[in-house]
Amino acid sequence: MSRIRVAVAGASGRMGREVVKMVLNDDELELVAAVNYSSGLEVDAGRFVGLEPCGVTMSTDLELALVEGKPDVLVDFTTPHSVVANTALAIKHKVRPVIGTTGFTPEDIEHFDRQCKEQGIGGLIAPNFSIGAILMMKFAAQAAKYFPHLEIIEYHGDQKLDAPSGTAVKTAELIAQHREELRQGNPREQETIEGSRGGLYNGFRIHSVRLPGVFAQQEVIFGAFGQSLKIRHDSYDRAGYMPGVKVAIQKVMEYTGIVYGFEHFID
């Protein structure tokens, strides 16, 4: 069986480097393009991530990399400012997008779903590729059937651009599928400091913590009379996301249209 040809956008970033290393170390995958947005960084992608030279030079032109590399899949870990345009370019060239970057509206997802179906290709937009994090979301959604009073607290480093995180939003969406909207707390509650109770979603609150030295954690806290339940997931290293990225690369080869959420690839 031929190997899946992979391009990586955001290859010079922290997540992108891990994807490059994972692809280069996997016999079922082949790195054919590595794109970064830092001028003057035209070096061998393998050498850049601390491995042996692989013959793929880092590029700053995504479209040219897609045309010349002819990848089957584009893995994108860039920024919310560039990811929508990157996804459009990938689909234009019939390259299956695997997107780990936030910044999509529901309308964007619908639009790209239609385009993928027209091109006869699959794609994935996933806020989180950690299998443990996906299980945390699934468990939380199930628990919400029995513990409808809850709050989400997510923790990330102080350089993260979006709040709440894509993982927290996806968790909230899954919970809302299993729980009717319920306004929690005292109806006369007042915030003496604006925003102290967090963001409101479907009647419950989401809190975002941003501190240096923090990597990525999330907990969902459920409360009921006489008891509480906490479901928490902690990520300590970006390499922990790579098994999920590989599953996504393989699975999008079997789908047509955009899949939103990595949980659809976990039985």
From TrEMBL:
<dbReference type="InterPro" id="IPR022664">
    <property type="entry name" value="DapB_N_CS"/>
</dbReference>
<dbReference type="GO" id="GO:0008839">
    <property type="term" value="F:4-hydroxy-tetrahydrodipicolinate reductase"/>
</dbReference>
<feature type="domain" description="Dihydrodipicolinate reductase C-terminal">
    <location>
        <begin position="132"/>
        <end position="265"/>
    </location>
</feature>
<feature type="binding site">
    <location>
        <begin position="166"/>
        <end position="167"/>
    </location>
    <ligand>
        <name>(S)-2,3,4,5-tetrahydrodipicolinate</name>
    </ligand>
</feature>
<dbReference type="GO" id="GO:0051287">
    <property type="term" value="F:NAD binding"/>
</dbReference>
<comment type="similarity">
    <text>Belongs to the DapB family.</text>
</comment>
<dbReference type="GO" id="GO:0019877">
    <property type="term" value="P:diaminopimelate biosynthetic process"/>
</dbReference>
<keyword id="KW-0560">Oxidoreductase</keyword>
<dbReference type="GO" id="GO:0005829">
    <property type="term" value="C:cytosol"/>
</dbReference>
<keyword id="KW-0963">Cytoplasm</keyword>
<dbReference type="InterPro" id="IPR000846">
    <property type="entry name" value="DapB_N"/>
</dbReference>
<comment type="subunit">
    <text>Homotetramer.</text>
</comment>
<dbReference type="InterPro" id="IPR036291">
    <property type="entry name" value="NAD(P)-bd_dom_sf"/>
</dbReference>
<keyword id="KW-0457">Lysine biosynthesis</keyword>
<comment type="pathway">
    <text>Amino-acid biosynthesis; L-lysine biosynthesis via DAP pathway; (S)-tetrahydrodipicolinate from L-aspartate: step 4/4.</text>
</comment>
<comment type="function">
    <text>Catalyzes the conversion of 4-hydroxy-tetrahydrodipicolinate (HTPA) to tetrahydrodipicolinate.</text>
</comment>
<feature type="active site" description="Proton donor/acceptor">
    <location>
        <position position="156"/>
    </location>
</feature>
<dbReference type="Pfam" id="PF01113">
    <property type="entry name" value="DapB_N"/>
</dbReference>
<feature type="binding site">
    <location>
        <begin position="126"/>
        <end position="129"/>
    </location>
    <ligand>
        <name>NAD(+)</name>
    </ligand>
</feature>
<feature type="binding site">
    <location>
        <begin position="10"/>
        <end position="15"/>
    </location>
    <ligand>
        <name>NAD(+)</name>
    </ligand>
</feature>
<keyword id="KW-0521">NADP</keyword>
<keyword id="KW-0220">Diaminopimelate biosynthesis</keyword>
<dbReference type="GO" id="GO:0050661">
    <property type="term" value="F:NADP binding"/>
</dbReference>
<dbReference type="InterPro" id="IPR022663">
    <property type="entry name" value="DapB_C"/>
</dbReference>
<dbReference type="InterPro" id="IPR023940">
    <property type="entry name" value="DHDPR_bac"/>
</dbReference>
<protein>
    <recommendedName>
        <fullName>4-hydroxy-tetrahydrodipicolinate reductase</fullName>
        <ecNumber>1.17.1.8</ecNumber>
    </recommendedName>
</protein>
<feature type="domain" description="Dihydrodipicolinate reductase N-terminal">
    <location>
        <begin position="4"/>
        <end position="129"/>
    </location>
</feature>
<keyword id="KW-0520">NAD</keyword>
<dbReference type="Pfam" id="PF05173">
    <property type="entry name" value="DapB_C"/>
</dbReference>
<dbReference type="GO" id="GO:0009089">
    <property type="term" value="P:lysine biosynthetic process via diaminopimelate"/>
</dbReference>
<feature type="active site" description="Proton donor">
    <location>
        <position position="160"/>
    </location>
</feature>
<dbReference type="GO" id="GO:0016726">
    <property type="term" value="F:oxidoreductase activity, acting on CH or CH2 groups, NAD or NADP as acceptor"/>
</dbReference>
<feature type="binding site">
    <location>
        <begin position="100"/>
        <end position="102"/>
    </location>
    <ligand>
        <name>NAD(+)</name>
    </ligand>
</feature>
<keyword id="KW-0028">Amino-acid biosynthesis</keyword>
